[in-house]
Write a structure and sequence with these properties.
Layout (H helix, E strand, L loop, with lengths): L8 H22 L3 H7 L4 H28 L3 H18 L9 H7 L15 E4 L1 H7 L16 E4 L20 H9 L12 H10 L10 H14 L3 H22 L1 H15 L11 H26 L7 H18 L15 H10 L2 H30 L4 H18 L3 H28 L15 H19 L5 H30 L2 H25 L8 H13 L1 H22 L1
Helix pairs in contact: 1-12, 1-13, 2-15, 3-10, 3-11, 3-19, 4-10, 4-11, 4-13, 8-9, 12-13, 12-16, 14-19, 15-17, 15-19, 15-20, 16-18, 17-18, 17-20, 19-20
Length: 585
């Protein structure tokens, strides 16, 4: 082996570990914080859900197609290098997307505390004390009573629900027509997208007026109108921000999505030529380690360098600069990444065969629905949990630390993987993972402080790690020989990615018309109902096991070589049984 440099296994595994480590750092720079950046651009929950759903959908179907083409034309290394090189530039396109309100950028870096409540994306609940708003503007004696009503309640940007005293509010006759339409329209969910920031425009305009100013005067109304127009929060600006973000993300995902699957297929086939695939199974740990280090490092850098590097974009541009820098490092490592040169003839219809296998086995169908629902529920956490933490005063460093806790918990639990699967069985481990995920979602809906998310993150070791170990072990047991990797790729790509896409699409609108807490509670209920149904159906299915042909061959060879000893043992056993029966008689 050592004579042929192509099969230098130690070197190949070393390069693969480094590549997975660097790619883990690279993904952690942007992926956990992407929706938070989109929120800072001014995009609201439905738009962010559409963007993330499109991203997951592209990854689910584009990556397998590119991996197939790269294998068919022997262009895997070209695709690896091209994907990394293209992602360096494509990720920086997001930095060029203009935010909806550029004034907030400068005020946030100047340390103004009013920025945090100026623009609240659609669907994020916030408790607003209207009484305190009146006290702060007590000198506005002629202000509209509808805006300065003495009532305290919960006000949401998705529906603008106000407290019990809402019926005592007078019409907005003292305001210009465009403000009347905005504030009244914000109360109806049918026009919620058009008036997404109407209340904030009015509140910001009022806060910018000098004390003692009466809003009823024409001169003062022109001041309010000018301040509101200066914010630039128009529907046209929202559309352009969304379109530019969508174009940038689609182009970026088309370049990035095939990287992981092509690298995994290349390394697996490289090791398969020399029967060393058992060493392939432990490489995922390096990616998780890289993500743990990367998510904490980039979070620490954001607070120090964000305003220093920012020109006219929102906070968070350091994430994309860090992503591009680490992608360049991964590009250098990919030059030495092991890619098999010899071409092994394999059937090209493995995906169709895997799909027919899943459709014909009720256990695989049950697992497919489970993975789909897990993807949908997990997408709500990935998309909106950081929004929830941000509303409770959490910094990006705490957010990164919460992600690192979940990843490190999964790594530590891996030492007990075999014992866990033996003790609980695969079905029991899947049930445990679903239960832990449902518990996490319920806990997220009741967050009360910036640090309250940290204790529950340890459950991710079961809801993410243990659940996927059980699913993988079940797929290896149920899939036929030669289709294990195709079935596993379909579960992780198509089913989980499709669930994540649907969860993102639906989740954004649920947050819009209700709240984030309601979304998490609904996902919790759905998972618990599916858990009960899953265990009920699984108990009624006949238990079947895949025939292990390697064990049969070993047993057959042993029986053939030791036929005489086997026959003697059989004769001895029969004789002892007969003697025992005679003695008993």
């Amino acid at each position: 082996m050592s004579a042929n440099p192509q099969w230098d296994i130690s070197r190949a595994l070393g390069v693969a570990r480094l590549f997975h480590l660097v790619c883990g750092v690279r993904d952690a720079c942007v992926t956990p914080f992407l929706t938070l950046y989109l929120r800072q651009l001014g995009l609201t929950a439905p738009w962010v859900g559409l963007l993330m759903g499109t991203k997951h959908l592209i990854a689910a179907f584009w990556a397998p197609f590119c991996a197939f083409l790269a294998k068919s034309y022997q262009k895997r290394r070209v695709l690896l290098i091209g994907s990394l090189l293209g992602s360096v530039g494509a990720s920086l396109l997001m930095v060029l997307v203009p935010p909806l309100d550029k004034d907030l950028v400068y005020r946030s870096c100047n340390g103004s505390s009013s920025v945090t409540t100026t623009v609240v994306p659609l669907g994020v609940s916030r408790t607003v004390n209207i009484t305190s708003a009146q006290e702060a503007t007590s000198n506005h004696r002629a202000g509209p009573p509808g805006l300065l009503a003495k009532s305290t309640g919960i006000m949401e940007t998705s529906g603008f629900r106000i407290g019990a005293d809402e019926s005592h509010q007078e019409p907005f006759s003292h305001l210009p027509n465009y403000l009347v339409d905005s504030v009244e329209g914000a109360r109806t969910t049918s026009q919620v997208l058009h008036h997404v920031t109407s209340f904030e425009v009015v509140k910001t305009a009022l806060s910018l007026l000098p004390e003692g100013t009466e809003l009823g005067r024409p001169a003062n109304l022109s001041v309010v109108k000018g301040k509101a127009q200066a914010l630039g929060l128009s529907l046209e600006g929202l559309r352009w921000t969304f379109i530019l973000s969508l174009g940038s993300m689609v182009f970026w995902e088309l370049l990035t999505a095939p990287l992981e699957q092509v690298a995994d297929d290349s390394l697996y086939e490289y090791l398969d030529f020399v029967d060393a695939t058992d060493r392939y199974r432990s490489l995922w740990v390096w990616r998780l380690l890289g993500m743990s280090v990367g998510v904490c490092s980039i979070s620490a850098l954001v607070g120090q360098l964000d305003c220093f590097l920012m020109t006219n974009g929102p906070r968070g541009v350091v994430h994309f600069y860090g992503y591009s820098l680490v992608s360049t490092l991964a590009l250098l490592v990919s030059i030495a990444f092991p890619v098999p040169i010899c071409k092994r003839r394999e059937p090209s219809y493995k995906t169709i065969k895997a799909l027919s296998l899943i459709g014909g086995d009720p256990r695989l169908i049950l697992l497919a629905f489970t993975v789909f629902l897990v993807g949908a529920a997990a997408s709500t956490v990935q998309n909106f949990l950081f929004w929830h933490m941000k509303d409770h005063g959490s910094s990006e460093l705490v957010m990164g630390f919460s992600v690192a806790l979940s990843l490190l918990g999964e790594i530590l639990l891996h030492s007990f993987k075999i014992a866990l699967l033996k003790k609980l069985s695969r079905v029991g481990t899947v049930g445990l993972g679903l239960g832990c995920l449902a518990g996490q979602l319920l806990y997220y809906s009741f967050l009360w402080s910036w640090w309250s998310v940290l204790p529950v993150q340890i459950l991710s070791a079961f809801s993410s790690g243990a659940l996927w170990w059980a699913v993988g072990a079940s797929l290896e047991d149920l899939a036929t020989s030669g289709t294990e990797r195709s079935v596993s790729a379909m579960f992780r790509g198509h089913f989980y990615g499709g669930g994540s896409s649907l969860g993102s699409f639906v989740g954004g609108f649920v947050v819009t018309y209700s709240s984030l807490a309601v979304l998490y509670q609904a996902c919790c209920v759905v998972l618990l109902l599916w858990l009960a149904l899953f265990l009920t159906i699984q108990a009624r299915l006949p238990q079947e096991r895949k025939i292990n042909y390697s064990e049969l061959l070993v047993m057959e060879a042993s029986d053939t070589s030791d036929s005489e000893e086997g026959s003697e043992r059989d004769w001895l056993v029969r004789a002892m049984r007969e003697e025992h029966s005679d003695w008993k008689g």
